[in-house]
Hints:
38% of the residues lie in helices and 19% in strands. By secondary structure, the protein is of the alpha/beta class. It has two domains: 13-289, Carbamate kinase (3-Layer(aba) Sandwich), CATH 3.40.1160.10; 297-369, Archaeosine Trna-guanine Transglycosylase, Chain: A, domain 4. It has an eight-stranded mixed beta sheet, sandwiched between helices. It has a four-stranded mixed beta sheet with strand order 12-11-13-14. Helix 4 packs across helix 5 (85-109) and helix 9 runs antiparallel to helix 10. It comes from Acidithiobacillus caldus.
Amino acid sequence: MRQRQHEAVPTPRADVQAQAQRWVVKIGSSLLTNDGTGLDLAWIARWMEQIRHLHRAGKEVVLVSSGAVSAGTALLGWSQRPGDLASRQAAASVGQSALIHHYEKILQQVARPEDPPLHCGQVLLTHDELRNRKRYLNARNILRVLLDRNVLPVVNENDAISYRPIQLGDNDTLAAMVCNLLDADLLVLLTDQDGLFSADPRRDPDACFLAEVTAGDPRLEAIAGGGGSGVGTGGMLAKVKAAARAARSGTATVIAHGRHPDILPELVEGKAIGTFFRVRRPVLKARKRWLSDHLRVPGSLILDDGAVRALREKGRSLLSVGVLRVEGEFHRGDLVACRAQDGREIARGLIDLDASVMRRILGHSRAELEQDPTIADSVV
């Protein structure tokens, strides 16, 4: 397994980009489509040429692609992107097949005679796949096999079957989760903006461009604040959060304008285009990344002060005696959040007991619990 250690002195940006071996490139809906309806095939051809360039340079590339709903909207003859979930799912079902067809066709059209075979492989994910440990590992194995076989994985959320309570939400988040799956070296988020500014440049003429920042810096979320283009689901805030999420596996991030000429080849050359998010935080181990990547948990345990200290300072298992309250519904083996009494999340872990059992044992002493062989004293 590829594992990176946290570096005390960050590697210069140019070196990170040039040396990055495994790339995750996300292209947003606002770039892929013509005003949200139909696909911009001319620009898709340019990006496929650039991905071919990366492959010639010996890089591995995973493409995270939006655009299925917009493509389906055009094919179904609708004048605008549908607002209700069922219609969006129908559009995604129609549009996803068109999207992967065009990627494969154009990828072959832009090939040079000396290029080795390179094909697209479609990978559609949902939150269910990524929150279940076995499915998560299976998704990782599939992506690794595709890369090993010189295939370009084209990843998207499975919008046709995802429903709002379990949706990943946006492909910026999905791209970051793919980075954590694969220990990617570089995440490139291509958008319709030049990068991150100190304020929204569309509203504030004094906004300053931020060329290099630190992933996970809490000030960045306040800066990113505003919404997106109106075509996709992710704005600049989602991209800043994605950079912080990707940093958990040591992945640096670039947010750049996708229609900058030869954006990907120039990044390989180490050029300073867009905003670079350096990594200056400890790299989480693979299992902890999986735990932290869960966007939603079915329930929470509210802890007393002693249990909070034990988790924070000693990393011990959580004992039932330290639980004050149970929120939500969950079953043994589910991931739950451990929270302080003020609601702050302290930790996450896999629960050993159903929520119904947890509620039954609250307020009982350890001696009383030991009389019941069906109850584990250590719950997380």
